[in-house]
């Protein structure tokens, strides 16, 4: 029996045309991760390349939540974008560290830091062109 004791709330803001801030509150688990996935897919469809996930209000995240974050990361790499996790709680940070997600997906402390990190990354990987004959 699954009763949502900590239902998910997602607030969507667009700080600039290529980026979306999703402020997530509540448990991010098997019962709620699909809702976040729908928001991410919708924003990708609208041309957003940078996904700022403020999860300071997420006390618990299981593998379903981590999979959504990693799937988003893989999808936005195809459009030279990125996913930035903002202010995870200590419990969620521990899970991100233990699973290696924090190695792949940048963990930052603020929206401003996430946008600065996005701007510092190369727009797209440059193909190596040999000039030798």
Automatic annotation (TrEMBL):
Residue ranges occupied by any STAS domain in the UniProt entry: 17-118
CDD domains assigned: STAS_anti-anti-sigma_factors (cd07043)
Cleaved signal peptide residues: none
Q: Name one GO molecular function term.
A: anti-sigma factor antagonist activity
Name the Gene3D superfamilies on file: STAS domain
Q: Which family does it belong to?
A: Belongs to the anti-sigma-factor antagonist family.
List the protein's name.
Anti-sigma factor antagonist
């Amino acid at each position: 029996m699954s009763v949502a004791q900590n239902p998910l709330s997602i607030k969507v803001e667009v700080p600039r045309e290529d980026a979306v801030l999703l402020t997530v509150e509540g448990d991010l688990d098997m019962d709620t991760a699909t809702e976040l996935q729908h928001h991410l897919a919708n924003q990708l469809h609208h041309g957003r390349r940078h996904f700022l996930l403020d999860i300071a209000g997420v006390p618990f995240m299981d593998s379903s939540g981590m999979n959504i974050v990693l799937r988003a990361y893989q999808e936005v790499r195809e459009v030279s974008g990125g996913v930035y996790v903002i202010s995870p709680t200590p419990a969620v940070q521990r899970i991100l560290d233990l699973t290696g997600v924090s190695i792949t997906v940048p963990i930052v402390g603020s929206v401003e830091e996430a946008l600065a990190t996005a701007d510092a990354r190369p727009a797209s990987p440059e193909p190596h062109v040999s000039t030798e004959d």
